Amino acid sequence: xxxxxxxxxxxxxxxxxxxxxxxPSTMNTNDQISYLALGDSYTIGESVGDDERYPVQLxxxxxxxxxxxxxxxxxxxxxxxxxDLKSAMDNANLEGRTFDLVSLLIGVNDQYQGKIFEEYxxxxxxxxxxxIALAGGNPEKVxxxxxxxxxxxxxxxQRNTEKITRELNAYNATNKLIADQYNVSYFDITPIxxxxxxxxxxxxxxxxxxxxxxxxxxxxxxxxxxxxxxTR
Length: 232
Prior knowledge:
This protein has one domain: SGNH hydrolase (Rossmann fold), CATH 3.40.50.1110. It contains 9 helices and 5 strands; from the N terminus they run H-E-H-H-E-H-E-H-H-E-H-E-H-H. Helix 3 crosses helix 9. The protein has a 5-stranded parallel β-sheet with strand order 2-1-3-4-5, sandwiched between helices. Helix content is 44%, strand content 9%.
């Protein structure tokens, strides 16, 4: 099951690769735009190529519109829950750093691993507050992406699909409410994820995660609003 956490050695390797991008030499300089993507397998791009992950596709889409984007900094690993992400952020040497754009997509593993639902809201709020702080305290530089519905994948079809959808609806209602409370933009990509059975090209070869094409559709759905954030 791809949602399960990776081994310690693999986690170190992945974090090492991505945190190289976060060296001081790559932080915001002149008019270059820095972008931090926080999440789990949906952000790291499980089962797709490096350049097919949604943070990279979004960066390229913004570059095509004339925005001088630095390569995205990604803190994400397959299997991470909200608390896993918080721990990784605490250990990522981000203190004192700010970014021009920060995205947050997290929660599917809290649901899949059967974590206590009532703990998701406080954990997500904590992460969103950290994301805003990393955006220099400006919530307009932050956006939240809803959790995809994996019930509409070959993997999900082998499980209780009604339960998956019902629980993810509750998780998404919670993260949207919190995003609204902090005046943070919220992009609902869940309807796109629910096209996975009628259009198999939207699902990666592992039968669970989004394909490059689905990530492309996510980016198409949010690019206009994200572009406006950077050009106001």
